[in-house]
Write a structure and sequence with these properties.
Number of helices: 18
Largest sheet: 8 strands, antiparallel
Helix content: 25-40%
Radius of gyration: 25 Å
Oligomer: single chain
Bound molecules: 5-amino-5-deoxy-1-O-phosphono-D-mannitol
Strand order of the largest sheet: 3-2-4-1-10-9-11-15
Distance between the termini: 11 Å
CATH class of the largest domain: Alpha Beta
CATH superfamily of the largest domain: Aminohydrolase, N-terminal nucleophile (Ntn) domain
Structural class: alpha/beta
Shape: globular
């Protein structure tokens, strides 16, 4: 989704802003723009990549100035045009030289626009953001901070904004509600951004703006207040990751880097949390809720996309190991279903970014209804992490590739630890938990073996890469793995792929099978192995081409599948973490072979901050 960078300090703003926008490119966007203050306000905007904007700025001879705002736009209100790109300005004739960048949606923009038009404002774009620029201009009485506060008291919806004004050339005002925004605190300078990846090159000290909060930044100091002007003191903290973690290293794409990082990332996820000998799990973030969790009647895991697939695996784990009734649901559907949630229910919100608007809204709804709400989140200090009652961080490091990989395995690993943590407090023996923890600790090495077999997977993909329709089939705990395999393939290679329970095929979808259609079966040896073999036979006898993900040493599978990807054996509950990896690798190679931009797939945003 939209990315925001803003700078005030003593350096030239443009290099800081463009470098920041490049760091935020992974979030997804379709146009970009900057506004810089230098005597007056100068704006440049362009459709397409940040480098197009950069070229445009170069052609004009550069934009000098030490105060500026910059934006990457992911279109919602209004098409992908230069006129709709940010920054947006207040009415030039009557205006004050105000420029605004915005991430989020102003829901009552139509009413506000009508009011402003009746008061003589003319609009040049179709965006909701331009309304905000005019509204701030309309309310400006010589104090930008106050005008922003007043405007935000009138709007409903979500926003992270940065605002500059020609009449106050040494002031940057930023604010947020519902969309992410972080302020990096440097020496005589501030770098504001949608996430820390655009800040760490300049400072490791930062604070996250709370909802309904405004920050006024000058080169000398800052002041934070609510939109009602009650002064507040934010908590400045140390950013936890290094700039080096954001670099590609020797990899061609972030997705590939992150696939390869999984063994190390999962070791980090486990570090200090499991005591194999003692059969105990230490989860400091949720320790104070241990008793409530042990007595909880029902667990509902909510997320979107890949995170939802992790929720679905988590559901099996909660039922199987914690022995608690569990469900997994799209956060977006749960939120608007009038769900039955009470004090006996625990909601677990799963999210890599911690900013997914649907997931945030779902947990807020559940909290209002009295549930205990936990988070399984990667991004430290993110909105979901802050809004939940307690939680567990993934600790898998920043995920930049739009296609989520290490976050998925980290989410499943964390859900497994949580299920064992709860189960141990209910009925699981120390011996059983100790054994399972030993198996958890062995998963990173098993994933490493799959990653090392990438060439075999690539040669299988090469045979089928021209096919436009694929199926991914699995049963039980491998059904979500099939869904995840299909999602990975479609989101980065644009191949149509469907994931479904293998048994569901004969209830309709089997009609899709035609000669040579690739059908990827998750067929590792587990309690449903024989049934999966039957499903394979059904598809093969109708001409489907079977690609099986199977257990090393399975001598039979090669007689029923035309292609086999062997993976190490693990306990059934933990096998999804191993089984998903060849599907990530498969999708990656398919996208590369089809010449797609793996890390920036069309239409997609890394972090979806609108509902
Ligand atoms: O940041 P989140 O985990 O909340 O994101 C949820 C989904 O948008 C995300 O998993 C998405 O489906 C991935 N791009 C899939 O690879």
């Amino acid at each position: 989704m939209c990315g925001i960078v803003a700078y005030i300090g003593r350096k030239q703003a443009i290099p800081v802003l463009l470098e920041g926008l490049k760091r935020l490119e992974y979030r997804g966007y379709d146009s970009a723009g900057v506004g810089v203050m230098d005597g007056g306000l100068k704006v440049a905007r362009a459709v397409g990549r940040v480098r197009v904007l950069e070229e445009k700025i170069d052609e004009t001879g550069g934009l000098p100035g030490t105060l500026g705002i910059a934006h990457t736009r992911w279109a919602t209100h209004g098409g992908v045009t230069e006129a709709n790109a940010h920054p947006h300005r207040d009415d030039r004739g009557k205006g004050h030289g105000i420029a605004v960048i915005h991430n989020g949606i102003i829901e009552n923009y139509a009413v506000l626009k009508k009011y402003l038009e009746e008061n003589g404002h003319t609009f040049t774009s179709e965006t909701d953001t331009e309304v905000l620029a005019h509204l701030i201009g309309e309310l400006y009485r010589g104090d930008l901070e106050k005008a922003v506060q007043a405007a935000l008291r009138e709007v409903t919806g979500a926003y992270a904004i940065a605002v500059i004004c020609e009449k106050e050339p040494d002031t940057l005002v930023v604010a947020r509600k519902g969309s992410p925004l972080m302020v990096g605190v440097g020496n005589g300078e501030y770098v504001v951004a949608s996430d820390s990846s655009a800040i760490v090159a300049h400072t490791t000290q930062a604070f996250t703006l709370a909802d309904y909060t405004v920050a006024k930044l000058t080169r000398e100091s800052f002041r934070t207040s609510t939109i009602d002007d009650v002064e507040i003191t934010p908590e400045v903290r140390e950013l936890e990751f290094e700039l080096a973690e954001l670099d590609l290293g020797n990899f061609d794409h972030y997705m590939l880097k992150e696939i390869h990082e999984q063994p190390r990332a999962l070791r980090m996820c486990l570090q200090g949390r499991i005591d194999v000998r003692g059969g105990e799990i230490v989860l400091g973030g949720i320790a104070q809720h241990a008793r409530t969790l042990a007595n909880t009647k029902r667990i509902v895991l909510v997320g979107q996309g890949t995170a939802l697939h992790a929720c679905m695996v988590g559901r099996y784990l909660m039922e199987d190991m914690a022995k608690i009734a569990a469900e997994a649901d799209f956060a977006s559907e749960f939120r608007y279903r009038n769900p039955i949630v009470d004090f006996g229910t625990t909601i677990i919100a799963v999210s890599q970014s911690g900013e997914t608007a649907d997931t945030l809204a779902a947990l807020q709804e559940a909290k209002q209804r009295g549930a205990l709400v936990l988070g399984i989140v990667n991004a430290v200090g993110s909105s979901i992490a802050r809004e939940t009652d307690a939680g567990i961080y993934l600790r898998v490091g920043p995920e930049i590739g739009v296609a989520s990989t290490k976050a998925f395995t980290g989410q499943v690993m964390t859900a497994a630890m949580l299920a064992l943590f709860i189960g141990r407090r209910r009925y699981l023996s120390q011996e059983y938990v100790g054994k399972m923890l030993g198996e958890l600790a062995a998963i990173p090495d098993k994933i490493q073996r799959v990653v090392d077999a990438s060439d075999t997977i690539r040669s299988i993909v090469a045979k089928h890469v021209e096919r436009e329709n694929w199926l991914f089939l699995g049963r039980g705990i491998n059904y979500p793995v099939a869904l995840e395999g299909a999602l990975k393939l479609k989101e980065i290679s644009y191949i149509h792929a469907e994931g479904m329970p293998a048994a569901e095929m004969k209830h309709g979808p089997i009609a899709l099978i035609d000669s040579g259609m690739p059908a990827v079966f998750i067929a590792t040896r587990n309690s449903q192995y024989e049934k999966v073999l039957s499903n394979i036979a059904e598809v093969r006898s109708r001409g489907g081409h079977i690609i099986a993900v199977a257990t090393e040493g399975d001598g039979h599978i090669g007689t029923v599948a035309q292609d086999v990807i062997y993976v190490p054996d693990a306990p059934e509950q933990l096998q999804p973490m191993v089984n998903v990896v060849p599907l990530q690798v498969l999708a990656y190679h398919a996208a590369v072979m089809r010449g797609k931009d793996v890390d920036k797939p069309r239409n997609l945003a890394k972090s979806v901050t609108v509902e």
